[in-house]
Design goal:
The chain has 523 residues and is an alpha/beta fold. The chain is 49% helix and 19% strand.
């Protein structure tokens, strides 16, 4: 048992011997006693050592024990102090408590039992105070961390919104250029650059928000039996522009028989695409990338291997850490935010799988291996038989009102919709939209959330209350894409929630799934 360290501050030799003997009577092996016979000696001992309890004489010759106690506390002396005095005095007791003493004992009435009770009580009280302080500090730190996380999430949501707003008209403008057709080679090249970089920036914004949602457990997986060949095809299609821009050779190998996993096809494709993007970024131009899927026992194994710059042993330990940026390239930055591999690990684990990284070292390439639990072909077949296939309806002209305070976004969207044969009108604020909707009577309303003055949620509620637009299809087109944003859209009366920049094909499919436009109400 660890000894209790006691500091006795006592100027009387006889009282020192009495106290020493009382401690020995309690337990001769339990206490380690240090003695200071005056004020200055006490301060020296306090300055160089720590104690579990302090027994302090009220009078130290001509000096005051309470003054010593106050000075000791100013020196961060935190041992509980038991004041010893020659006679009971309520005023002394009160002064001692104010000065920071934990207990008060009268020398003439002191015996071993009383001394033991006081020491045990004061030490227990100190431990309780330390535990309370620890709990308070931990709670305070947790609350601060939660507040910081909320502030971070709010910042990321706002950042995504602000980035997505300019992305939307850029994406629309690229689509306009594609549809008009441009034989000039340099112009086509410029359009391709804009398209690729817009797509890349959109992916960065999505990854930035995804990693926040995943780490907080806010991602909802839409699981179903998925054939891995479908996942890989989507991933390759997503990563192909980056791979081609670096002039890499990509070799894809799939199992001879269909292999199924229980998972979210979009998220699984994101996993494989992030691994391909990582391989493409860290492989010098003209390198090779191998993507394979194999069945081993009860697992599906996906491997992405490259001839890239490799990973050092020091970097290997933190390659999946959030915001970890590799220093594998000394000549230039490879770009990215350091979150792609963190997303890979978290999404794979949400699917009940695991991911590992391997590299023989710098200049030796790298390999990432994903293991996912297989699901039986019978289960996949049963699920697919109960799934109804949606067939896209042919394109039909619709009256569409676009409400967006970003004039470039509204005008570029109106131009695209006109190309597709729709009637499109625009409004740049809520009040104008409500007035225009009464005369135009749109069948579909593309409505931005972050409008000046009256926000999109309030506009949606007012549109639902107007006879001319009560049955219109309301589509939120916004830079806010978190789960709580979608819930608010639903509560406000929106039918759909699309996040900017919206892919033209996505909007086209959504519009085609709606019934043909009805004739406007006569007024």
């Amino acid at each position: 048992m660890e000894k209790i360290k006691v500091l006795l501050i006592e100027d009387d030799d006889d009282d020192y011997l009495i106290t020493r003997d009382l401690l020995a009577e309690i337990d001769p092996q339990r206490f380690a006693l240090a003695w200071a016979a005056d004020y200055d000696a006490a301060l020296q001992k306090i300055a160089v050592a720590s104690y579990d309890v302090c027994l302090l004489d009220y009078r130290l010759g001509a000096q005051d024990g309470l003054a010593l106690l106050r000075q000791a506390r100013a020196m961060d002396f935190d041992a509980p102090v038991i004041l010893l005095t020659g006679q009971p005095d309520l005023e002394i007791d009160l002064q001692a408590m104010k000065a920071g003493a934990a207990d008060y004992l009268v020398k003439g009435q002191l015996d071993a039992a009383a001394l033991e009770r006081s020491i045990r009580y004061t030490i227990q009280q100190k431990r309780l105070e330390e535990e309370r302080l620890k709990l308070f500090t931990e709670r305070q730190a947790r609350e601060q961390a939660e507040a910081a996380n909320r502030a971070k999430d709010d910042f990321l949501a706002m950042l995504a919104h602000e980035l997505r707003n300019p992305l939307a008209p850029i994406r629309n403008a690229v689509e306009v250029l594609k549809r008009r057709g441009m034989p000039d080679g340099e112009t086509q090249w410029a359009r391709g650059v804009i398209e690729r970089q817009t797509h890349h920036l959109s992916r960065l914004v999505d990854d930035l928000l995804d990693v926040s949602r995943v780490t907080q457990g806010k991602v909802r997986l839409e699981k179903e039996p998925v054939e891995m060949a479908t996942v890989i095809a989507r991933a390759v299609e997503t990563s192909r522009p980056l791979i081609d821009s670096r002039h890499h050779e990509l070799f894809v190998s799939l199992p001879q028989e269909p292999a199924y996993v229980e998972g979210d096809v979009i998220r699984l494709a994101q996993v494989v695409s992030n691994l391909l993007n990582n391989a493409a970024k860290y492989t010098e131009d003209g390198g090779k990338i191998w993507l394979s899927a194999t069945v081993e026992a009860e697992s599906l194994i996906v491997r992405v291997r490259d001839t890239g710059v490799g990973i050092s042993p020091e970097e290997m330990a933190q390659v999946f850490n959030l915001f970890s940026q590799s220093t594998r390239s000394l000549d230039r930055s490879k770009g990215g935010l350091g979150i792609g591999l963190t997303l890979v690990r978290n999404l794979v684990e949400l699917h009940g799988g695991s991911v590992e990284a391997y590299s023989a070292g710098i200049g030796q390439g790298s390999e990432f291996t994903v293991r996912l639990p297989l699901t039986t072909a019978a289960a996949a077949s049963a699920r697919s038989q109960t799934t109804t296939q949606k067939v896209a309806a042919p394109t039909t002209a619709k009256r569409i009102l676009i409400v967006d305070d970003n004039e470039d976004a509204a005008e570029s969207m109106a131009l695209l919709l006109t190309f597709d044969g729709h009637q499109a009108q625009m409004a740049h604020d809520g009040l104008t939209a409500l007035k225009l909707a009464q005369s135009f009577q749109p069948e579909v309303i593309l409505l931005d959330i972050g409008l000046p003055g009256m926000n999109g949620y309030d506009v949606a509620r007012r549109l639902r209350g107007q006879a001319e637009t009560s049955a219109a299809q309301l589509i939120a087109m916004t830079g806010y894409g978190q789960e709580e944003d979608r819930e608010r859209s639903k509560e406000a009366g929106f039918d759909f929630h699309l996040v900017k920049p919206v892919e033209p094909e996505t909007l086209q499919q959504l519009l085609n799934s709606m019934p043909a436009a009805a004739a406007p109400h006569s007024l």
